[in-house]
Amino acid sequence: MHGIAIDNPQLTKPIECRYDVCLLTLNIESIESDGQISVRNLNGGRYAVFTIEHTADAVANFWQSFSSEVYSCGVTMDISRPIMERYFVKMVANGLCEMCVPILK
User: Fold this and answer.
1) How far apart are CA 51 and CA 76, in angstroms?
2) Distance, CA of 100 to CA of 37 (rounded, Å)
């Protein structure tokens, strides 16, 4: 599962940040909706992936410092695409999650 930030956590108060939840499927036509689920496509591309502890503090710290972390990796963030929080069952069971920051080639 992915969490996709709609608001920029560096500019929006944490209590006011909104997220989309993303479920991956290969066959979008197979999804049945009663009109309460919106469907949209995300553009692919390259991401810098950061593994962090799956805690509120670690996620908040990431959002406060990710731009300097990306810069220290020698890449440029692609601001046209959203940052995604990625949760795999095995990782969450081990107290971890991933932050996927879109980068330019």
Assistant:
1) 19
2) 24
At residue 25, what are phi and psi to the nearest 5 degrees? Answer: -145, 150
The pair phi, psi for residue 103, each rounded to 5°, is -125, 160
**Which residues partner with 51 through β-bridges?**
98
Amino acid at 52: I
pLDDT tens profile 45-102: 999 999 999 998 998 898 888 888 888 888 999 988 888 888 888 999 999 999 999 9
Q: Determine if the pTM surpasses 0.90.
A: no
Q: What is the per-residue pLDDT across 4-13, written as a single tens digit (0 to 9) for each? A: 777 777 778 8
Q: Which residues contact 28 (CB under 8 A, 6 or more apart)?
A: 39
Rounded Cα–Cα distance for residues 77 and 57 (Å): 23
Is residue 102 within 8 Å of residue 86, measured between CB atoms? no
Sequence spans of domains, the chain:
2-32+43-103
Q: Which of 15, 20, 18 is nearest to 7 (CA)?
A: 18
